[in-house]
């Protein structure tokens, strides 16, 4: 991976109170939000010659939208002078000719290009029974997947990617976050695991899938893996709410910060040694070999040390240990990662304990890629002191390291409820106990959220359960806490990985729930964390506003406004709330609406989804393999 100065990418948090541009931007991919309104599409459709024969587009919610960011990599390369190099402006044309990746008939019949305002927009064929069955166990929305390709210039071999490129991808996702259901990043395989790890830390409070993929053989070749990889990534990004940065390759969906490239000559190029793939659809990282430790001097602030076995190094080299100790004493954060593909760092051996005694932090079963990205993310946290940074490095932040299973077991057996159930089912082995835990904890967490019991939520988390999982109706603890208006619980859940974009069986988000039950503070907090109404929810919004206006319910109108909904939205009969209030002669409501629409919003909603205050200048760290 190419070296670069770590530019100070200042926080991208920004106020959403300003209306976003509704215009198609220079590169033609940023689509007008208004253009998504179903009636517009209907009007455009009706002007199409072949409208009668079109499979009816009942609403815009029949389509899922995915943004594909093409950064380069082998998937779009061609041979020149016997070497592979990226080819600009050829990818979309080539996809257009592949029926498996684009349905031109549907595009023509539904005026897709006019409607989305971009020649770079394509649509997958209707999902078949077979592709429906591809991903077992994940909640799925059965939709047409419309995707728009944003091609970077220049396209890069990923060995040339720098941290600036990570920042660019993050910014583009942030810019387009509300307009798409998911994101696919096309990327070279050589440094894909680094970018995946970096994005996983950059994207705080992520609510939608970001899936990196690429290929080993260019998509232009007759026999290639690019088509399958792209198709799989699109199907997942468009159909499933997996709020994670993932990597999809060779029929497997991995957590992005768990993978490493293991094979330069096989389609099966990636492995996630310490975490099973999230779903199955069935060369070399330059390391700095050192023989001197001069590199531990300032301005070095962090080091990922790749050590032997379970985190061991020679304990008969006092010179080496002394240098490490001096460095950690002076504030350098050194993470101890194992060179082994599988297994975790622990202090079973004297040769491992000496490293911990020298102040190193155990990297558990993190990949070096994830450790390096996490280190850069943590080092960039300006308002966090050194001890807290060290603590963050030793804790699981985004699923990049496994929790202490021994601890989980102990807590599981401590939990009387689960213990009794496990006993009555004669369950004794760890795997079965964990399966019981995973089945039981979502409803338990929802029950705790309902009564505002943060301690109970904490206890469930300690047991190793995820607080993001939904119950049988897909309702997460965050949905429940939002309905109940438990602000502290909402705060707690948001800071422990809950996603604001979770949708229940009825397509409702926690924001929509908080609005329904009129919990203003919860609405404000959710908005601050990046929540927005889904397109489904927005379709009903105009009618809802009109009925609130008809009944003079100004409190109701205000809370919809707080939730970021445009009060000019039209109801089913084309009227706006203010027109309805005028029609029923409710002057107070009219005056209130006029004031509400002219006033600047009372809350400043700040988008925290992506705070890429990442890798500031002067932060210096390195990945080293220890050779002694
Ligand atoms: N298969 C690949 O994509 C390898 C290529 N050199 C890259 O990382 O861009």
TrEMBL record:
EC number assigned by the record: 3.5.1.1
Residue intervals of the Asparaginase/glutaminase C-terminal domain: 294-393
Single GO biological process annotation from the record: aspartate family amino acid metabolic process
Keyword Methyltransferase: no
Molecular function terms, GO-annotated: asparaginase activity
Active site (catalytic residues): 189
UniProt cross-references to InterPro entries, sorted A to Z: Ankyrin_rpt, Ankyrin_rpt-contain_sf, Asp/glu_Ase-like_sf, Asparaginase/glutaminase-like, Asparaginase/glutaminase_AS2, Asparaginase_C, L-asparaginase_C, L-asparaginase_I
Alphabetical list of Pfam families matching this protein: Ank_2, Asparaginase, Asparaginase_C
Presence of the UniProt keyword Hydrolase in the record: yes
ANK repeats: 473-505, 506-538
Residue span(s) of domain L-asparaginase N-terminal: 65-282
SMART domains associated with the record: ANK (SM00248), Asparaginase (SM00870)
UniProt-annotated binding residues for substrate: 158, 189-190
Keywords: ANK repeat, Hydrolase, Repeat
Enzyme class: hydrolase
UniProt-listed CDD domains: L-asparaginase_I
The family this protein is said to belong to: In the N-terminal section; belongs to the asparaginase 1 family.
Protein name: asparaginase
Species per Swiss-Prot/TrEMBL record: Mastacembelus armatus
